[in-house]
Structure formats: structure tokens, C-alpha cells
Design brief:
Number of strands: 13
Number of helices: 6
Radius of gyration: 17 Å
Strand content: 25-35%
Mean pLDDT: 94
Low-confidence stretches: none
Structural class: alpha/beta
Largest sheet: 7 strands, mixed
Shape: globular
Distance between the termini: 38 Å
Length: about 250
């Protein structure tokens, strides 16, 4: 079963990271799921693949009533992000899925109906959650041609999808980055190969540098906090991407 860690709480406004299942088969990439709650509603971010649905659902249910989930935010179209969609909708058919307009015709192959999907236009979208306003931030061509991150201005948290991801070896699987220099080597190859455009990367770095961010939360690996957030943005801005590792 996955572990839940509360990474932000102010009254009924809460962020929970759902991470690290020791029973996960080794052939699957490890993923982080996040739950945002405000008031009486919740939004689950990149809820994961179908194969880990029982572990994610069980862990989330210990923290929050899943029948009060308003929806799913899918950063992009990959199966490790949201192939569990049909299973979430089987439990709660009223859930909505926020995803780039580019993938709103592809994700229904994972499940759902025409009413399930709320396409996000390229420039982004404000997403309401029981009085809280979340922002879908463009991150196109950073792993996917139609890609979004989610910013919470009140919590000062940016969910960054695959940007910031690191493929960590055993023994380096803590929730937060503790030693940036030791950590970043496990992120370099991933970013060089999976991020497709230097121009898009620089646009993203400029855009998110203007945000007030305490925690940068990727879908894989450890969370950047404090000064390591800007340290990562600066490192990423300098990294040549869209090339085979050399």
C-alpha cells in the first residue's frame, strides 16, 4: 500500500502526497499522486495507472472521502498518469477530468463519457475547487506536446508533472530532496531525453520563476522545497534538452 504524507495544511485546505508502495513490482516506474482538498471537495492529480489503483484508492480513502472527489487533473495523456480513470469513474461517475484539449479525444479510451472531460485550452485555465481557484499552467512540449502543470497560489505549490522528475535508486527514495547536488544527477538523463524543446523549456522557466513557489512537486522522484525550487529551475534552464544522452 502507498503512504500518505501531508505536505501542506491550512484549516481545511490541504495537500497530500501519495507515494512509495514497497509492494510495487519493479518493472513499473514509481509515481507520485497528489490530493488537493478545500472545503468539502477534493481533486486528485495524475491519479496513476490502472495497476496501482487499489493502492492509491486505499491510501487516499484513509485521508479523504473519495465520494467527495470533484475530479481528476491529468497533466498529459500517459498511462502512468491516468489509465486508472475508468476505475475512479466507476466509483464516482460525476468526477470530471481536466486535460489538454489535445488529449480530450484520446483519454476516453481509458474510460468516461463526453461529459467527463473538460478540455484545457493552450493558454491554461482556472479550475475551481469549493472556493479555491487553482491554475493550469502551460508546459507544452515538456514531455508531451499538450501538457499542463497545476499551481496553487494559496499553498504556494506547483505540481510539475514530469518536470523535476528523477529516477531514484534504492536508498534514495525520500519524500524531499535533501542533497540537491547528489539528487540532480538522477534527473539529468530523464530531462535530456524526455523534454522535447529548449525553447519550450526556457518559456516554462521564465513563466514559473514569476510564481511564488514553496514546493515543486513532480510525478516521479522527490519534492523540491525552499531554495531548491529556484535551484532546480536554474539548473533546468541551463540544461540542453531534446537530445540523446551523450
Amino acid at each position: 500500500m502507498k503512504t500518505t504524507k501531508t505536505i501542506f495544511q491550512d484549516g481545511d485546505h490541504k495537500w497530500v502526497a501519495i507515494v512509495r508502495d514497497p509492494q510495487k513490482p519493479n518493472h513499473l516506474i514509481d509515481t507520485n499522486e497528489y490530493l488537493v482538498t478545500h472545503g468539502g471537495r477534493g481533486l486528485v492529480l495524475d491519479p496513476g495507472g490502472a495497476e496501482i489503483f487499489p493502492a492509491v484508492f486505499s491510501a487516499l480513502s484513509a485521508e479523504f472521502d473519495p465520494s467527495a472527489l470533484a475530479g481528476v487533473f491529468a497533466s498529459h495523456q500517459d498511462p502512468d498518469c491516468c489509465s486508472s480513470l475508468a476505475l475512479w469513474l466507476e466509483f464516482n461517475p460525476a468526477m470530471r477530468c481536466y486535460v489538454s484539449w489535445m488529449w480530450s479525444g484520446f483519454l476516453p479510451h481509458f474510460g468516461g463519457s463526453a461529459e467527463t472531460f473538460i478540455p484545457i485550452p493552450d493558454q491554461g485555465l482556472d479550475i475551481p475547487l469549493d472556493g479555491l481557484m487553482l491554475q493550469a499552467i502551460p508546459a507544452h512540449y515538456l514531455h508531451s506536446s499538450g501538457n499542463f502543470h497545476l499551481y496553487d497560489k494559496q499553498a504556494k505549490i506547483l505540481f510539475s508533472g514530469d518536470v523535476g522528475a528523477a529516477l531514484l535508486p534504492p536508498g534514495m527514495d525520500g519524500l524531499f530532496v535533501e542533497d540537491f547536488d547528489a539528487h540532480i544527477g538522477h534527473a539529468e538523463g530523464f530531462h535530456k531525453r524526455w523534454m522535447g524543446s529548449n525553447e519550450a523549456k526556457r518559456d516554462w522557466c521564465e513563466r514559473v520563476s514569476q510564481l511564488d513557489i514553496d514546493l515543486l512537486c513532480p510525478q516521479h522522484g522527490a519534492i523540491y522545497r525552499g531554495a531548491d525550487v529556484q535551484r532546480f529551475i536554474n539548473w533546468f534552464d541551463e540544461l540542453p534538452v531534446g537530445i540523446l544522452s551523450r
